[in-house]
Amino acid sequence: MLVGYLGPKGSFSHHVAQKAFPQDDLVPYQNITEVMKAYEAGQVDYSVVPVENSIEGSVHETLDYLFHQSEIQAVAEVIQPIKQQLLAVELGRPIEKVFSHPQAIAQGKKYIRRHFPHAQFEMTASTANAARLVAEHPDRQYAAIAPHSAADEYGLQVVARDIQEMEENYTRFWILGHHLPQLSLPQQGEKQTLALTLPDNLPGALYKALSTFAWRGIDLTKIESRPLKTALGEYFFIIDIDNGQKNLADFAFQELTSLGITYKIFGSYNVFQIPEK
Amino acid sequence: MLVGYLGPKGSFSHHVAQKAFPQDDLVPYQNITEVMKAYEAGQVDYSVVPVENSIEGSVHETLDYLFHQSEIQAVAEVIQPIKQQLLAVELGRPIEKVFSHPQAIAQGKKYIRRHFPHAQFEMTASTANAARLVAEHPDRQYAAIAPHSAADEYGLQVVARDIQEMEENYTRFWILGHHLPQLSLPQQGEKQTLALTLPDNLPGALYKALSTFAWRGIDLTKIESRPLKTALGEYFFIIDIDNGQKNLADFAFQELTSLGITYKIFGSYNVFQIPEK
Fold it and tell me: Where is the signal peptide (chains A, B) (predicted)?
């Protein structure tokens, strides 16, 4: 079986794909949209994409594509703890330049400033790209802030472990596909994600939409507005609901329809957690 | 009077600052956080920062800083139509490379592909940076996708006008300060923006928070969740309310407090619109 992910090798997406599909062939793509298009074109059986980070928020590229351009379904969610490592070709050498993704630099800056005050920072497109760049220049005094799996992938040494500033850092990934995959990861619960589009002519439309869930006691675990890209102040709403009360949710959907509120289901899925090391 | 904005010169922020404060001295800063810090440090009397774009959504750097790290107030909002121009040193020359911000490239790609199929794209940190780069290399076959004001600022020619793919593209800017500024721009209305933090132990807390506004007939023009940066699934909520019913809003705030919902007011402000050319 083939599984697409956001490359290059050694990225957090790669790690999630490895944990979820340890027996299968993993195929890297250059950006999130290409990972999803690969699934639509039938090039892969599943696609693994990031959806939300606990510090940065939603991954708009993923959610906007699913809303505007696609009918793909999320069939599982995998939560990956984000721990950043300082990686270099050799231990004990001075570090002149530190490469990483802007968010990982933000998380690791405090540590680097304290221990390598003369190091300069340079942005890369991803943490795995930074690790690859460091490995390709073994003669330079370079280091990367990147996941542990990137050290294994590019033969780098861990200079310092878990250097991120915030302890609580997690990313949600979705597995997109047709069939529920059998994952050998600890399961946490069951959720459903949908996008609501509200009619212009319904006063208090968002409040009414939320009411259909609230009075039935259905928990919303997330709500977020995203621009419809039509005019300033026009949004669609992404909501996550607890899937424990599936029958009640079906009634809520009927009520939404009768109010003139349209909804698009992004998926009903089990939530899995990759254990912290 | 001194006014800080997101530089360099020729950016949309610069244009907004010029329209709002035509008589004053404008000071560019390198990023949004620095624009806000300049105001806090007393280096400028007002700061102009982007808040939301109708296609891309909220500017998280602005809203997260105002929520987590600052007590600055928005005292006016200015809506700027976003129109992108193709700029070069000379008209009628071939174009080999087109520079711009990723979002402006996304908006202009269709036009460039059709008219300059051999041109390559290269990302810059901002549209104004792209224009400056083109002006600095007059011997190269370079072009920039940038606002009209960047053409004036860097002495570039407009090769093609309004090349953006989507017609409806606006950005909201906030003027941060202590006093309401007198702007000679057309006024559109009056709004208030606040951030709600919900207590853990209140079931249906978001629904209850929205109820305090809904049953009083107070219109919410926007709602958005942003991560609290503590754990996955914990959010604060940014809401915009119509400021027409100010007394009613004060009662709603009292009710929020009695429910254990905390709120932080980002500002009560008039909304101004820069006319389309």
Answer: none
Nearest CB neighbour to B229, from listed A54, A207, A222: A54
The interface pTM score, or ipTM, of the predicted complex is: 0.76
Domain A2-81+169-176 has CATH 3.30.70.360: no
Which chain B residue has its CA at the smallest distance from A202's CA?
Answer: B219
- At B89-127, the pLDDT tens digits run 999 999 999 999 888 888 899 999 999 999 999 888 789
Taking CB atoms and an 8 Å limit, are B232 and A54 in contact across chains?
Answer: yes
Token pair of B61 as six digits: 């750097």
Query: How many angstroms away from the CA of B174 is the closest CA of chain A?
Result: 15
Per CATH, the homologous superfamily of domain B187-273 is ACT domain (3.30.70.260)
Q: How far is B1 from chain A (nearest CA, A)?
A: 31
What pLDDT digit, counting tens, does each position of A90-118 carry? 999 999 999 998 888 888 999 999 999 99
* Model pLDDT for residues B223-245, shown as the tens digit of each residue: 888 888 887 778 899 999 988 77
